[in-house]
Amino acid sequence: MIIIYIFVMLYGLSMLAILIYSLAQANLLFHFLRYQRSPPAPRAMAYDLPMVTVQLPIFNERYVVERLIDAVATLNYPANKLEIQVLDDSTDITRQLIQNKIKEYPQLNIQYVHREARQGFKAGALKEGLKMAKGEFVAVFDADFVPDPDFLMKTLPYFTQGRVGMVQTRWAHLNRDFSLLTKLQAFALDAHFFVEQVGRNRQGAFINFNGTGGIWRKECILDAGNWQDDTLTEDLDLSYRAQQKGWKFVYRPEIESPAELPPVMSAIKSQQYRWTKGGAECARKHLREVWSQPFSARIKLHAFAHLLNSSVFIAIMLGTISSIPVWWALQSDRIDASHFRYGAVFFIGFFIIACVYIVAFFYTNAGFWEKSRRIIWQLPLFLAVSMGLSLHNSVAVLEGLLGRKSAFIRTPKFNLEEKGKHWKTNSYLSVKMPLLAYMEGLLALVFLSIAWMSLQSQVYFMLPFHVMLAVGYGLVFVTSYQSYARS
């Protein structure tokens, strides 16, 4: 019985951690809604336009690099004040595609910077380009982005007042409706870019540059110690170093930066691994320093929640595994279900998290009734898939917290804006299915069996949780298998 109660305690602790995470999300939702009632007035454009450098970090992007250069070439900005750097670390045909495309724009100042050794990965490329950058301001776009032609004219005015070091725009989605996976990713990212970024920024808490779709004051980058490659999220790392130096960040949700979402699970996992592990590495690097500085308690608490938000996957995984012996004990009457009477309070956390995503979803462009129809199935399916990714992401978070280093694995890009195109011909996708993917399939079978036995025995206490786990792990496994088995 002692072992059973240990698992009950672990299950309770995991639910408590999710509840605490949800309270931080509730605070961000409150400030987001408060901002909607009184958004700040737009600023006037400065008359004397500054020199701007646009950096395009590239590594083997044959499918999207030409689209990116074409988009940047249409930026509405004086050619004599604009410098474009193509920071190319490619080892394949991408190099020739870039050089041919640059020749189409002889009227523009486009610099081609190629590194034979990919030292420091993306951070190293940005740092190398910064040495040569003549711009007072530096915009960054990843290969899968298609910048708004008026991006610079919309963002630069926010640098005119105060010690503003960076302006971040909201990611929009070129292929939101391409597939089920792109719909669910857009659902998740909209919560970050509508609720979380706005909620933090409007109360003066730390926010992060999202790696692309933003523009920096060059002085800010240098003052904060320049780009560093000791974490997988160089953007989050530089953001915290800059804000600890007193630089202010501005987030503008109304300025969109369209980008493509990865349409296959293997690419999504690559991206999720880098984001979750990098976030944990930044927590390891910055939390103690932020806590020791004279910031307000509110800012410190938000930094704590921000840097450790990916750790919620560990809580989900802990709750997932501990729920199995707890369920068995309930089924065999080794513990009384009345012990869980007060555990209903933990469902408040799931309700809050659901509210965050619902609010963000209703701020997208579709009509009210169309969104109402979609939310009925997208919300539960998104929550289930998030649970299904908890094993993969927990491993990444633990590696980050423990200081285990790994290479920067970029997310494959596809250029699949329209339905009918297929991702299977993408030469950058891996063909070897990792062991974790098979473990996800095994967990799907385990929770499907538990759900079936719960129905048979008519013990429904944990049935919804286990059904969602079965669906989540099952969908993650099946889509993972499809992305590796491409023949």
Protein described:
With 487 residues, the chain is α/β, with parallel strands linked by helices. The chain has 2 domains: 2-31 and 310-484, no CATH class; 53-261, Spore Coat Polysaccharide Biosynthesis Protein SpsA, Chain A (Alpha-Beta Complex), CATH 3.90.550. It has 16 helices and 7 strands. The chain has helices spanning 2-37, 65-73, 94-102, 121-132, 151-155, 180-201, 218-223, 234-244, 265-292, 297-307, 312-331, 347-361, 368-388, 390-402, 435-457, 463-484, and strands at residues 52-58, 82-88, 110-114, 137-140, 164-173, 214-217, 248-259. A 7-stranded mixed sheet has the order 3-2-1-4-6-5-7, with helices on both faces. The protein is globular, with a radius of gyration of 23 Å. It starts with a helix and ends with a helix. The model has no long low-confidence stretch (mean pLDDT 91).
Order of strands, widest sheet: 3-2-1-4-6-5-7
> What fraction, in percent, of the residue positions are helical?
40-55%
Reading off the top of the CATH hierarchy, the class of the largest domain is best stated as Alpha Beta
List low-confidence stretches.
none
Q: Mean of the pLDDT scores?
A: 91
Structural class: alpha/beta
Q: Any guess at the CATH architecture of the largest domain? A: Alpha-Beta Complex
Could you state the CATH homologous superfamily of the largest domain?
Spore Coat Polysaccharide Biosynthesis Protein SpsA, Chain A
Tell me the β content: 5-15%
Largest sheet: 7 strands, mixed
